[in-house]
């Protein structure tokens, strides 16, 4: 198989790059190791199955007033957005030996927005604009080799290992994951490898917990669903009710990845539900379902370096040097010049990468 551009990764960045390249007449082949689209976008129902109208266990928000790239993309794709609920009081838990306090909430600025149908609505809209036969799920790229005319990929899927030839590679996955999972022939320069390994992967050390309820009882009590805690196990909690009205609360765990493994999901779930009851009252004691996603335990997100790595990725240039500089372009959110790690970063970085590849193809045609 031969294609002009091979895109590695079918998250928001990979699919947006594939959309832009396909729209300009470039032949694209997308390879995704997961059996689903979306990467760190994961929208599920109460049984943890992927859903068209569920709860976000990965990326949830965007801020259109300060993130023009994602605002434009959502508008172009015609996806409906709605504001994160902030109406009502907030709860603050300072110490375990005293009850949580209730305080007047303030308007969000800038306003956090969510997508109707969950963040997966963005993934679906992008995938609909890429030829379906060009997207390969369960296809893991294990190696890249420079050839006289481009790059040869080694791809493992359900049928075994196969080779794919491409003129250019657009890698739409976190640099650290790229360094940990891919072999390169010739080897990438040591400085490039160090840069990739030293770039934190956003969400890779995080875990989210979500509790589903029959009604948003906290709203009836004049609460926004927002809470901050210095007790835990969740440090930050928000209303996760869907645009269609399915009630839920979600939180980010403050327990580190290593400690989460030692405690176990069942005990963490019990502790999170108990915390919600402390903060929001006895109605929180019996959720209809709970969801737990530990991104540090996801081998297609986190590497061995991530459990002990904190902080937000910061933009660095150049991302690729040496023999690979002309054939490999990075497009993951972590490589964004402005919004590294966010949905907006995926939109910005992928558009920049697609433009770079288009320019190189044009220059090659006229050389």
CATH superfamily annotation of the largest domain: FAD/NAD(P)-binding domain
The shape, in one word, is elongated
Helix content: 25-40%
Q: How many domains in all?
A: 2
Query: Based on helices, strands and strand pairing, what is the structural class?
Result: alpha/beta
Query: What is the number of helices?
Result: 9
What name does CATH use for the topology of the largest domain? FAD/NAD(P)-binding domain
Average predicted local confidence, pLDDT = 95
- Low-confidence segments, given as residue ranges, are none
Question: In percent, how much strand structure appears in the residues?
Answer: 25-35%
CATH architecture of the largest domain: 3-Layer(bba) Sandwich
Radius of gyration, whole Å: 21 Å
First-to-last CA distance:
25 Å
Number of strands: 19
Task: Kindly provide the name of the CATH class of the largest domain.
Answer: Alpha Beta
Elements, N to C (H/E): EHEEEHEEEEHEEEEHEHEHEEEHHEEH
Describe the protein in words.
By secondary structure, the chain is α/β, with parallel strands linked by helices. Helices cover 26% and strands 27% of the residues. The chain has nine helices and 19 strands. The strands form four sheets. Strands 1, 2, 9, 10, 11, 12, 13 and 19 form an eight-stranded mixed beta sheet that branches. Strand 6 and strand 7 form a beta hairpin. Helix 1 (12-23) runs parallel beside helix 3, helix 2 packs across helix 9 and helix 4 packs across helix 5 (190-197). It is elongated. The two termini are 25 Å apart.
